[in-house]
Design brief:
CATH architecture: 3-Layer(aba) Sandwich
Structural class: alpha+beta
Helix content: 25-40%
Order of helices and strands: EHHHEEEEEHEHEE
Protein name: N-acetyltransferase domain-containing protein
Organism: Scleroderma citrinum Foug A
Domain N-acetyltransferase: 42-190
Keywords: Acyltransferase, Transferase
Number of helices: 5
CATH superfamily: Gcn5-related N-acetyltransferase (GNAT)
Pfam family, one: Acetyltransf_1
Largest sheet: 7 strands, mixed
CATH class: Alpha Beta
Length: 190
């Protein structure tokens, strides 16, 4: 059994440290699936890691292995120990991508620990991300239009598992545009 939650904003140091550990582990184990590298992100300062989580225009979702402990403690939300975190995904609202004219939401950093793959974690995290995007009102836009109700993901061509998952979740290939070599863009209506 798994627990799903979004990381708080601002994130306390313990949450930042757990996220950093999960992200660096992801880059070390599944380097070919990311547009960044372990070496690049291992050099980030603690402030840089905090900045990644402290934007009101971004939400990071995590799946952890269930434990008997409660998520509420003395009226305050408590997060499971970072060592039990096994999957993550982040959704960036259009305002997170300023000053560009980018309008869709962007799905980034989807990763599930190899021992926990095939159990529906990625789908569940993506559903949480899509729900957040549907409910979030981005101040960059005063009116909703068809273009702002989309989520995109850049996918490595050779990552068949990701392409299959995104297709199951309703994403389809976005033709045209110029993407970094080896990547293609998939899009879904939010």
């Amino acid at each position: 059994m798994y627990n799903y939650f979004s990381l708080p904003c601002p994130a306390p140091p313990s949450v930042v440290a757990a996220y950093k550990s999960l992200r660096l582990s992801s880059l070390r184990v599944d380097a070919a699936c990311f547009g960044s590298t372990y070496t690049r992100e291992a050099a980030f300062t603690d402030d840089k890691w905090s900045e990644r989580l402290d934007s009101p225009f971004k939400r990071t979702f995590v799946a952890s292995v269930s434990s008997a402990s409660s998520f509420k403690m003395e009226g305050k939300e408590r997060f499971p120990d970072g060592s039990s975190w096994v999957a993550t995904v982040s959704v960036l609202a259009p305002s997170e991508l300023l000053p560009t004219n980018w309008e869709p939401y962007l799905l980034v950093g989807l990763r599930v620990h190899p021992e926990h793959r095939g159990k529906g974690l990625a789908q569940a995290l993506m559903k949480h991300g899509l729900e957040w995007a549907r409910a979030f009102t981005d101040p960059k836009f005063t009116e909703t239009n068809d273009e702002t109700e989309r989520m995109v993901a850049l996918v490595v061509h050779d990552n068949e598992a990701a392409c299959t998952l995104y297709t199951k979740m309703g994403f389809h290939n976005l033709e045209g545009g110029s993407w970094e070599e080896g990547l293609h863009c998939m899009v879904v209506k939010v």
